[in-house]
Amino acid sequence: MIDTSIAVIAAAAIKATGDVLSAWIQRGGRQEQKPVSGEQEVRNVPPDVIRLRDLRLGDVRRFLAERSIVLRQVSDGDDIPGSYWGAPEAGLIGNNLYARRDTPIHSILHTACHWLCMNEERRAAAHTNAGGDDVEEVAVCYLQCLLADELPGYSRRQAFVDMDLWEYSFRLGSAKAWFEADAEDAQAWLVERDLVALDEHGIICSTAGRRPLAARLRA
After folding, report:
1. Which of 14, 73, 93, 108 sees the fewest Cβ atoms within 10 Å?
2. Computed over its alpha carbons, how large is the radius of gyration of the chain?
3. How far apart are CA 61 and CA 153, in angstroms?
4. Pairing of strands 91-93, 28-29
5. Do 118 and 126 meet the contact criterion of CB atoms below 8 Å apart?
C-alpha cells in the first residue's frame, strides 16, 4: 500500500522542479503561439503604446526602405495580410511589411527585424510565420531594441516600455533588464551573422546594407 503523504510530497516536488526549470529556460521575447485556428485574436492596444499613427509615416517608410523593406499601409479596420498574431499586429510577406495606423511600432520593428535576421532563401519565402528557433527570436528582440533609436520619433527607452506593456516575456521580468544583463546569446547570434559588430563602446548596427550606425549598449 502506497503512503499517500509520500505520494503528495513527491508530486509537489516534481511540480516545483518543473516550475523552476520552466522559469530558467524562459529566455525572453515573444511567446510564438499562434491563436486557435479560426480565431485570429485582436489585441487591445494599451493606451501608452506608440503606434504607427503617432509617428510621421514618411519617417517610418524611409527607415524600413533603408533596410530593403517596403511598408504597405492597410486601411483602418481591415485585416492585416501576413499578420501572425492578427490585427493590429504587423504582417510580413516577402519584404513587404503590412501595418495599419493602429499597429504598434514595436510590432513593426519586431517584424522588420525578423526579416533582417533571415537568410536570402527564407526572405524570399517569408509569409506570416517568420520561423526561426528560440535563440533567433531573442536576437530579433535585441535587434529591435537597438534599431528603435534609429527610428525618428521613437527610442530604445520607449521600446522597453512598449514591450513590457505588450507582455513580451523575459526571465528577468522586463525588457530593459533582459537587454542589459541577460542577452549574451542574442548578441553572439547577431555578431556571428554580421548583423552587429562589437567594439569597446558598445554595439554598431550594420544590417541590410545600411551604413554602420553607432548604438550604445545601455539606454
Report:
1. 14
2. 19
3. 13
4. unpaired
5. yes
**Rounded distance between C-alpha atoms, residue 219 and residue 202, angstroms:** 11
Residue of 78, 119, 115 whose CA lies nearest to 94: 115
Question: Tell me, what's the pLDDT at 83?
Answer: 97
Task: Tell me which of 212 and 112 has the higher pLDDT.
Answer: 112
pTM of the model: 0.77
Closest by CA position to 89, among listed 132, 130, 118, 120: 130
For 6, the 3-state DSSP assignment is helix
Q: Tell me how crowded residue 142 is: count the other CB atoms within 10 A of its CB.
A: 26
Cell numbers linked to 6:
509520500
Percent of the chain with pLDDT over 70: 68
How are strands ordered across the β-sheet holding 196-199?
196-199, 202-205, 213-216
> pLDDT class for 200, splitting at 50, 70, 90?
low
Q: State whether residue 61 is helix, strand or coil.
A: helix
Q: Which three cell numbers stand for residue 211?
A: 551604413
User: What strands, in cross-sheet order, belong to the sheet with 70-73?
Assistant: 70-73, 96-99, 91-93
- Provide the 3-class DSSP secondary structure of residue 70: strand
Residue spans per domain, the chain: 47-216
Alpha carbons 73 and 85: distance in angstroms, whole number = 17
What distances in angstroms separate CA 182 from CA 27, 67, 92, 132, 195, one per listed residue?
8, 27, 28, 20, 19
